[in-house]
Specification:
Blueprint lengths: L13 E3 L3 E2 L11 E8 L2 H9 L8 E4 L5 E2 L4 E8 L4 E6 L3 E7 L4 H10 L17 H5 L2 E2 L2 E2 L4 E8 L5 E5 L20 E11 L9 H9 L8 H15 L7 E5 L5 E2 L1 H10 L5 E3 L5 E3 L1 H7 L6 E2 L2 E3 L6 E4 L5 H19 L8 E2 L1
Parallel strand pairs: 3-6, 4-6, 5-21
Antiparallel strand pairs: 1-3, 2-3, 7-8, 8-13, 9-10, 11-12, 11-13, 14-20, 15-17, 16-17, 18-19, 19-20
Helix pairs in contact: 4-5
C-alpha cells in the first residue's frame, strides 16, 4: 500500500528535554513528567527514536491524544508522542470507499472530513476524543456502531525491529472495547495508520433512544441522512459529557458489563428497572452508568476526583487530582456496584 502523503514531513524524531511535562498529553490533565519524550512524525522517525542510545534499556509509552490513560506517577522511560498526519481516499470499488488516515489525526475531525467528502459511515462515532491511532486499540464505539465494523486494515511498526506490518480486520482480533493491540500487541507495536471501509449502500443507524430523541427534537421528519446523525450525536455528547479542555476526564471510565442470561434473570427479579441490552449470543449487556447511579455515586467526589454530575460513567479531575485519586474513586465505585448487583466493573483506560 502506498504511504500517506503527510501534512507534516519530518524524517527525524524530535527529542525533548529530560523531565518533559505530560500535562498537555493526557486528557485528565495529570501533572506528571517523562524521563524522555520524542515526537514521531513518520515511520522512519520511530525507527530512529527506538534505536537512539538514549532509548536503550528504557521502557516505552505511546501517547496520541492521551484520552484513554491514567498516569499515576512520573514515567521513567521514553514517551513516543504520535504526530503522524495525513488522510486520503485510497481506492473504491462498487461497494465501498477505502479511506486511510494517519495515527496522529484527530478522530472527530477525521469523521467530519469523511462526511464532507461524501463518504458516510462513521457519523455515529463523532466527538469521541482521541486520535485515529487509538481507535483500533480500544475498538471505540457509540450509538450502535463499533470502529471494528468499518476497519479494513491497520498499519503498525514493531518497535523492537522497525518492521512494518499490515493487519487485516480479522488479525486485529477486535472485541468489546478490546483488540490485539490492547493485549498481545501492547508495548510491541505502534500504529501508524488505519484504513476504513465505508459502505456505499449506507443505512442510518439511529436506534438508540438518546439519538432518536435528538433527531426528533431537531425537527427531522423521515429517515435521517448521515449529517443529521452526526449533528445529533455531537449534540447528545456535548449535553451529557464534559469537555476535557474544561474539566479533565477520559470519557467513559467503565465498560458496560456483559453477563450470562441466568445471572441477568436473577438480577432482573430483584432490580426490575435495570437498564439492559440483549446480545446476539444470548448474554445481556448492562448499562454501567445506571448501576453506578443507583449506588448513589453520580456527582459525588473523593477529594478532587469526582463522578460527573450528568454522566455517572465519567470520572473527572476537578483540579489537582492525581491518577491515584482517580483509581481510589474507581475502586470505591466498583466495591459498591459489586456489593449491590453482584456485577464486576472493568475500567476502560489503561493505568500506568
Amino acid at each position: 500500500m502506498p504511504a500517506l502523503d503527510p501534512i507534516i514531513v519530518d524524517p527525524s524524531p524530535v527529542w525533548f528535554a529530560d523531565g518533559y511535562a505530560l500535562r498537555a498529553h493526557n486528557t485528565f490533565g495529570f501533572d506528571v513528567r517523562a524521563r524522555y519524550a520524542c515526537r514521531i512524525d513518520s515511520e522512519s522517525a520511530l525507527t530512529d527514536a527506538v534505536r537512539d542510545p538514549r532509548a536503550l534499556g528504557l521502557p516505552m509509552l505511546v501517547l496520541g491524544g492521551g484520552s484513554n490513560v491514567v498516569l499515576t506517577r512520573d514515567y521513567d522511560g521514553l514517551v513516543l508522542l504520535v504526530a503522524l498526519r495525513g488522510r486520503r481516499k485510497v481506492r473504491e470499488d462498487a461497494d465501498a470507499w477505502y479511506v486511510e488516515a494517519a495515527a496522529g489525526e484527530n478522530w472527530h475531525e477525521f469523521v467530519a472530513w469523511t462526511l464532507d467528502a461524501g463518504m458516510p459511515g462513521l457519523e455515529n462515532l463523532a466527538l469521541i476524543p482521541g486520535t485515529v491511532g487509538a481507535a483500533p486499540i480500544q475498538n471505540i464505539g457509540a450509538y450502535g456502531l463499533e470502529m471494528a465494523e468499518r476497519c479494513a486494515s491497520v498499519r503498525a511498526v514493531e518497535m523492537a525491529t522497525g518492521a512494518v506490518t499490515e493487519f487485516d480486520a480479522a488479525e486485529c482480533a477486535f472485541g468489546y472495547r478490546d483488540s490485539f493491540f490492547k493485549r498481545e500487541g501492547r508495548d510491541r507495536y505502534l500504529i501508524t495508520s488505519v484504513t476504513f471501509r465505508l459502505p456505499k449502500m449506507w443505512q442510518p443507524n439511529a436506534g438508540y433512544s438518546d439519538l432518536s430523541r435528538a433527531l426528533s427534537e431537531g425537527g427531522l421528519t423521515g429517515a435521517p441522512d448521515a449529517r443529521a446523525i452526526f449533528d445529533a450525536v455531537v449534540a447528545v455528547r456535548r449535553a451529557k459529557l464534559p469537555d476535557p479542555l474544561l474539566i479533565g476526564n477520559a470519557g467513559s471510565f467503565f465498560k458496560n458489563p456483559v453477563i450470562e442470561a441466568p445471572q441477568f434473570d436473577a438480577l432482573l427479579a430483584r432490580e426490575p428497572q435495570i437498564v439492559s441490552y440483549r446480545q446476539g449470543d444470548g448474554r445481556v449487556k448492562l448499562a454501567a452508568g445506571w448501576l453506578i447511579d443507583q449506588c448513589g455515586w453520580k456527582g459525588r467526589a473523593l477529594r478532587a476526583a469526582a463522578v460527573h454530575d450528568r454522566q455517572a460513567l465519567v470520572l473527572v479531575n476537578r483540579g489537582g487530582a492525581t491518577g491515584a485519586d482517580i483509581l481510589e474513586l474507581a475502586q470505591a465505585i466498583r466495591r459498591d456496584v459489586e456489593a449491590r448487583f453482584g456485577v464486576a466493573l472493568e475500567q476502560e483506560p489503561v493505568c500506568l
